[in-house]
# Entry
Amino acid sequence: MNPFMRIKPIQDANKFIDMAFRRASKVEPSLPQKLPPLLKAKRREEARVRKVAQFLHDRFNNIVKQFPKINDLHPFYRDLTDVLVGVDNLKKYLASLRGAARVIMKIANEHIRNIRRATDPGEAARERKAAYGRIASFVKKLNERLIFLEEARAKLRKLPSIDPDMPTIVVAGPPNVGKSTLVRVVSTAKPEIATYPFTTKTLILGHFKADSKTYQILDTPGLLDRPLSERNQIELQAIMALRHVANVIVFMVDPSETCGYSLDMQLSIYEDIKKSFNVPIIPTINKVDISPPEMIEKAKRVVGDDAIEMAAIKGKGVNDLIEKFRSFLEK
Ligand SMILES: Nc1nc2c(ncn2[C@@H]2O[C@H](COP(=O)(O)OP(=O)(O)OP(=O)(O)O)[C@@H](O)[C@H]2O)c(=O)[nH]1
Ligand SMILES: [Mg+2]
# Structure
């Protein structure tokens, strides 16, 4: 589901040059016995130059091919790609690698033409070496781009594997209110652990079934747990990418305040998130098993009387939440 998952590690320029030359050194074209020595030498040099160029050409094009088409990316992954590596940069570097593959073939062909015209084996060998030299120095100049692409790959492959087309609940709320507990309780299969840009905490991604349909539920540790005005531009973009996958946001508060945040503080974060996301919000009051009734009432006065009352740890209220979520999907 993560469109960057399958990209293989990308070597640096020196590694590519080494690999190409090593392969070329093993090339032994099968030539007829009776071929004159000069022709044999020329054929061998030509085959080696061709091997170096073809190898690099194919590898570079293969890198480009392994990356998903940026324009076809789902907006969720597109926004996160932009935040992590810059969409324009990525496009530019991929295009330049494709261009470089063509240039390498062109350099090789120039020298192959000269090899064919050579009048002695020494001249053919010199032409082959000249081709190697030009190709190597050209590839070395690509090093920064190759390193950029490798770094991009390493960052992008860590994005969570979300199916953007599957109905999705995003669970938001202050730290320690019980978000991960809810995801674990709801999930039918063992939830996956993932990371998300700009949070150090692990994110939990679960799936559950209702009436034979599958749904996703996604935790957001450290993302929607404080006012968005405290975020910088780049964090905001990473957070706002969630709107592309969230059919609803479950905003959880903890009126027991055992999470370590006052209820007032929690409710002000709720107001802030509600203002900022153009996604329906299902307010959820968790830890009702240990919350004083007057605190639950206080929470309801802000988030609404129809908030789901929950004790996630005991599975209480979880079905009500799923029903409410599904009724939102039908709207
Ligand atoms: N009494 C009670 N405790 C709960 C309930 N739900 C969660 N907890 C406890 O609250 C603590 C925090 O729960 P988590 O699920 O880790 O909270 P979180 O929102 O994922 O926290 P962060 O990932 O740090 O943002 C844990 O010790 C849970 O056992 C509940 O319904 N009742
Ligand atoms: Mg958590």
